[in-house]
């Protein structure tokens, strides 16, 4: 696109959203150069921050008419580079669309705009005895639109499921400029589940403009405990034993020694930093049922050699312990100046074996690896720490992170549980999916986005000649010679 064409688009956008909602300054655009995956950065040509749905729809349609690539961005808390801008295109930011449009406590639904912060929705419906179950660790900042894009989960997804289990319908502005509703206000709408196709598509099939959220009744009681162990292996085996007994906790989170130390330094919550690992386990439901399950859980912890068990005696203590757990990613800064977090999934039975192999990778590389994760569903979150000031450490961290994903796949797991593929894991997709699978995904994507301009370069490995290598994009020799191009 020529400079004059960009100028034409800028003027059209200025007419739609006004000058204060259009960011053109080099420094200000740089503030949007990455999401939570800070190792990948790109500065967009234009950043537009619409004030409402009408401005959003009109602005995106103007960008579509210009044939310029575009990326949607919510709060920017994603960890796979899903909201990484396109250097040749426009970044559309949804944070100002933050209204809760409707709450129907009888039907237990809420209609929200994509910029509504996750935790704010639960606070808004608490007076009705309801809440929004998906609770990513970033729930104080992440937006519902981003949760939809990544199919986010959180600590309580073991019992309550992911975003897809709590979103009934979405209004989507497609890359063709068409505005459509997908899904219905019932759990089983007619026809193909296009709602489910869009949820977790990482912003590659359009931009969500409204979301119909399913709300849950607040449980009668919650009981939260932390069990400490002298090894990661013992804690992992305790997790499998709890589930084998038919108990479904609301959450089972694990932290290893390094994670415990980092979280305690950051929050002062009272974690036992002498332990090698701990399980943060929460039961909820009816009082009698929770009481019986709690006794069974205490028995399991004892059988697997728990050093001691701490129980939250009130809501303040419970909130403090969850603060410590959800601060883990930020707390890693107490251990090292930078890290790469992975998001692979393994069967619960494989946890002891995989965690031991991750520990070996850390020792062999000399890089500290913090493990803090959703143990109930085997969703690992290893934080591979490094110092970018030390030459070669960042590349080594990328190699270790890639090896961890290979471990997960070797155990019959997957590349991601909730963080998404984005740009971080895109070159690993052929390790998990066949050429036929990837071709099917590509055809589906093309049906939604014929021009291929919506969040391009994410989720699916393009071009195939990139060599599917992990880490930053490496141009192919044919591309460097001007004989091929990235598409």
The pLDDT mean sits at 93
| Count of DSSP strands | 18
* Sheet with most strands: 7 strands, antiparallel
Tell me the number of helical segments per DSSP (H or I, 4 or more residues long). 17
Strand order, biggest sheet?
A: 15-12-14-13-17-18-16
The level of helicity is 25-40%
Q: Which structural class best describes the helix and strand composition?
A: alpha+beta
Shape: globular
Q: How far apart lie the N and C ends?
A: 15 Å
Provide the β-strand percentage band: 15-25%
Radius of gyration: 23 Å
**Residue windows where pLDDT falls under 50 for at least 5 positions:** 464-473
Instruction: Classify the oligomer.
Output: single chain
Question: What's the quick description here?
Answer:
The chain is of the alpha+beta class. It is 35% helix and 18% strand. The chain has 17 helices and 18 strands.
Descriptive report:
- By secondary structure, the protein is an alpha+beta fold.
- The protein contains 17 helices and 18 strands.
- It has a 7-stranded antiparallel beta sheet, with helices on both faces.
- A hairpin with a 7-residue loop joins strand 17 and strand 18.
- The longest helix is centred in the C-terminal third of the chain and has 18 residues, at 393-410.
- The protein is globular, with a radius of gyration of 23 Å.
- The two termini are 15 Å apart.
- The model is unreliable at 464-473 (pLDDT under 50).
